[in-house]
Write a structure and sequence with these properties.
Strands 2-3-1-4-5-6 form a six-stranded parallel β-sheet. It is globular, with a radius of gyration of 17 Å. The relative contact order is 0.19. The chain is built from nine helices and six strands. Helices cover about 50% and strands about 10% of the residues.
Amino acid sequence: MAEPSYIAVEGVIGVGKTSLARILSERLKSRLLLERHDENPFLAEFYRDRARYAFQTQMFFLFSRYEQQKELRQRDLFEQRVVADYLFQKDRIFASINLTDKELRLYELIAAAIEPEIPKPDIVVYLQAPTETLMKRIQKRGRPYESEMSFEYLEQLNEAYNYFFFHYEQAPLLVVNTRDIDFVENEADQGDLVHRILEHGEGVAYYAPLGHGDGA
């Protein structure tokens, strides 16, 4: 079985997707594609006033991700493996819980027009964790624009992610419970997870290892 050439790592804010994407990129000597959170000028205002800034925040992310993904269409010319810390289609999760009905209809028209141009990953790795764990990790990393995030919003987002990936069928999917592992600091946890990702074939699989604590 050939190893995947395009891996997308997904999960709720604070679950460790960027950390895992960096690890995979280093271990597999691949190109790393990261979301540009810090470039969104509306993000800090969004966490303070979701209703007022949701649409601006959402559209900025949509087009930013689109510009990044357009570059991946040329990746076969360079025969280089790619690891991304997001799945383009997950943008709809945020849109569905943050936009008004009118805003969502406009968003859907735009998203439907550009999604056919987006390359599909060979595997999606969906990292899960309880909301309490996510909140601790967010507080630990201390990003200023996330300081206004409420537990209720994070819980809503966590539920929306689970619903989205329960119905996801566009690429092979590996669901990973990260509550009890530390794939950043623990070499055994990291090695096991990377091995499991690379050996995954078609369909959906669930990976719930017994690890060494919460540090991702």
